[in-house]
Amino acid sequence: MSTNNIWTHKGTFLLAAVGSAVGLGNLWRFPYLAGENGGGAFLLIYIVTLCIVGVPILIAEILLGRSSRRSPIMGMRFLSRTHNASRAWESIGWLSAAAALIILSFYSVIAGWALHYTWRMLTGALANADAELASSSFQSLLASPSLLTLYHTLFIAASGLIVGLGVHRGIENGLRLMMPALLAILVVILAYSVMHGNMPAAVDFLLTLQLSDLSFEGWLAAMGQSFFTLSLGMGALMAYGAYMPGEISLSRTALAIVVIDTVVALIAGLAIFALVFGASLDPAEGPGLMFITLPLAFVEMPGGSLVGAVFFILVLGAAISSAISMIEPVAAFLVERFDLTRAQSVTAMVIASWTLGLLTVFSFNVWSSDSPFHDLLGINAFQLMELLTHILMPLGGLMVALFAGWALTHGEIMKELRTSEGWLHTWRFLVRFISPAAVAFVFLRAIPQIDG
Ligand code: PFF
Ligand code: NA
Predict the structure, then answer these.
(1) Residue 7: inside a domain, yes or no?
(2) Per-residue model confidence as pLDDT tens digits over 134-169
(3) Contact 103 CB / ligand 1 (< 6 Å)
(4) What is the DSSP letter of 286?
(5) Residue span of the structural domain in which 205 resides
(6) Where would you find the membrane-spanning parts of this chain (predicted)?
């Protein structure tokens, strides 16, 4: 059974894909990774990686979705059958479903922090906070399993509700409402940071290139980030691509997604560092950058509590539009495969992911230093989830590239891509050789580092 859902409007696929792409990866992860890995040097490797790995695999993934018109698992089953390819390719679908379940489980916990901070900003709980208070307030949030579970539950339930309402009534309508509002907030935050922060210092920090800062660790981080930020290797864009009308240019849309995602990450990075430098704070806080340093910067500035609250609403909205793209592929599969209703499928996916998310919740408190995972692997559950993410996403992406590059016929690709012969050959060369080689290389080089 193939899906008979098609996005109602021509622009909806782009809207949905941008909604999926733009999220915690841009607002929370990119700025601190860039900060940790030498600013301009990181940006340079990141952009190169996007061009040779990100864009080609993004195109491949949407293409597989649109040409199969099914959810990722059923779609790969269908495509491997019609191409006389091994059924092993179906594992692309299974891998991506596993990745979706795992990523959603911790994504929801972290997005829950933004819910907490929206609230704290609105109530002015952090007004007049100093560095110590900001840090201890974050620590006490992490120390509370019940608070973390509460926010995690609220966030994942809201995301599930949108998907449960259906492709048109829930996802499409939700995004058409949310995305323009998010864009407006981003512009407000940028303007505010230019007015009240130190933008020249942020530009200097984020964009100045020092070749000595280029490093293999930087490349590793850039590779992981390009998969995460573009929602690759997870079936999200394959599922959305299945609803994409046939006449829309796939290559142009893919390019637009990457450009918008990168611009949003840059704007977020510049705005955050401008505020952080404006308040003379430390840019190298790592993952705590958004939750410790940034709130401090806000409360030092005029109207900062309100603007801070608006900022965390942006984070929440961006995270929800990403979370729904993790639920959709698995829910669509359950509907197609087991004839469940949409509500049943979404509930099953959300409950499974919610339960797994409790491991992340506990890894910040009751299991922070000793847990079943520590004994086994030496890392906590949250670190294990992150590690699995950084294995599953590139692995899924690698297989997507190989299948699209080697199993699909030239005619099919022509039909879907309809770009010039030159571009077509470039893309095919990239997905056949360059992207898989780059992923494999980084993987192999990374293994000894995990051990060490
Ligand atoms: N691209 C999202 C972000 O940058 O926050 C994260 C994400 C969404 C990853 C959807 C995977 C996915 F399927
Ligand atoms: Na992103």
Answers:
(1) no
(2) 999 999 999 999 999 999 999 999 999 999 999 999
(3) yes
(4) G
(5) 12-451
(6) 12-30, 42-64, 92-115, 148-167, 179-199, 219-243, 255-281, 306-334, 346-367, 387-408, 429-447
